[in-house]
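Hey,

The postdoc asked me to send both predictions to you directly instead of through the lab channel. I've kept everything plain text so nothing gets mangled by the mail client. Protein one:
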Amino acid sequence: MKINYTVKLLLPAITASLGTIGKDIDVEIKRDKQGNPFFSGKHIKGILRERVLQFKNALNEEASSFIKKYFGEEGNYLENNDFSKIIFSNLTLKKDKGEKTGNRHGIRIDRRTRTTIPQSLFNYEFLRENNEFEGELVFKDDINKEDLKFILASLFHLNFIGGFKSRGLGKIEVLIDGKDINDLEKIINNLKKDDKKINKDKINNDLIKYSYTLTFDEPLILKARELGNYVEVKKYLQGSTIRGALIELFVKNGIELDKILKIKASDAIKDKVSLASLFKTKYQINGEDKKIDKAQTTIIEVDGVKLERYSKQDFSIVGNEVSVKINPKTKSVESGLLFNSEYLSSYEKDEDKNFKKIELMGDVELPKDLINKNQVYTIYLGKLKTKGFGKAKITFKDYIETKEDIVLRIDKFNEDIPKDEKEELNNKTLITFDLQSDMVLAFNDIYNAQEQFKILANLSDKFEFNYSRSFVNTAKLEGYNIINNIRKIDELVFSRGSVFTFEVENYKEELELLKKIEEKGLGLRKNEGFGRVKICSSRGNN
């Protein structure tokens, strides 16, 4: 159940309180990639949680279990969770309202001498009064009516937002569908439950393959690793993340967990996977970058210009979400509990330099008739899903195989090898194994990448590894199992985009093995999208 609300600024407000080094303004308004100001869902969740707690304590009602139920608790994420947590969106500027900003100066006063502290002059940017922001709260459909009424009453009683509230900034008015707290009963009675769209009565053991298209409504945090209190993100979306989000969607809609654990999902990609063998000239030649695939040629420069690695990422990092833990008694920051996380943009620029939502594609295997084709479903991806991050729309359609025949791909790849380099290869055929997703290894250590790959792929000694045409990246896969709420052991992977190149005399004798590798994949956790391999995938602009 979704509730849309509007926040109107009655006094100026700022959306952030972080200094910006090297700027004319010391404290800037928090903006998204498009330059629009916003209040983060994390901030809204924090101030609403505080107001709910204040009212519960004032009424001498038990607050702890209520707060845990609707604002979060530790525990088994899927099996014991009834999904009662409220999901908060970011507050974004209303599209029909023009942004109005200003800036002010301030100083710091020495409390002892009552005089200005030297070099303490600073200035900050703010949003002027009458700016309007809109956001949404998502509740479980069967939420207790009295609990919902209490939470919405607390929402109406939010009176300040943003930073510098003690300086007279941030006074607001909250409305739901243009109504205030006097119409609370009417608002509750007019709420509509979401259309389910999940055919839970038709679930069966037959898995059907679908293509999916994914678009993003919010920025997202895809954790690569944690460095102390700092979260570093990865710039691509793994199939395991898609699978986990779909499992959560189905469990929320009343499907038993055991019946959907067999579903499979691929990585979500834009166009095609950027291979580690792709290089470009360090400087432009005749006004353009020259791209070379070094699995096909061993040259080190083009027209005297050196080559460097080229990689096209699905996402770009646009900012950092900084948060602190507040001591509820002292209302001050707890020492050592500053958290910082990179986050990824949900927008990119098209050829005309206009912003558009990022769109990714992939494939999934789901029980037959479980979903409706071409129907839009909402899923949540990555970290901080209840705090304004990770909301996405996914649609499914019939899967159509468009992959070119493996023999044609191998022949085309070898045709594009320079003639003199073919002679150096003694006219052997080059076979590249291009990783379309991370490959999870069944080893505790990487001691010899090519030999370990041959073991996993069951390649015979006829396959001779070509060192100069192979480009292998390795990484550790940190993870967290949302099904049973445990931290998983770090796993070793050959990274997505890695290229293993082998020479072979007569590859057609090995066709059945090569086809099986493409069909089944390699390594562990293949049902989560890991270990997908393509033989001699298209290069250049193909």
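Protein two:
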Amino acid sequence: MRYQRCDDCETLVFHPRRHCTGCLGGHLSWHTSKGAGTIYTFSVVRQSYHPFFRSRAPYAVAWIDLDEGPRLLSNIVGADDPGTQLSIGQRVEVEWEDHEELAIPLFRPA
């Protein structure tokens, strides 16, 4: 996973932008996350009306704080009963779900 950081004021910029959100400068450099972080908050979806997700319920949707600073929304995999197996502050690590033209970052309890 890649994110930007301003070379002038060190502000972390995520999602990618052309200018820094802190100082509006244009000197941004790319950095690579190790893909580890903690659950900031989460919600368990127990019933889904969309056919793709129906067979996956229950599943957890979570805001993940990466160790490097970015916060992103993703799904948590690897928990049979996410309501009892996940907690705020729990450590997670990225697991990539490959598709034909892209890879989706999902997270698994560490």
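Summary for protein two, as requested: The chain has a mean pLDDT of 94.

Thanks,
C.
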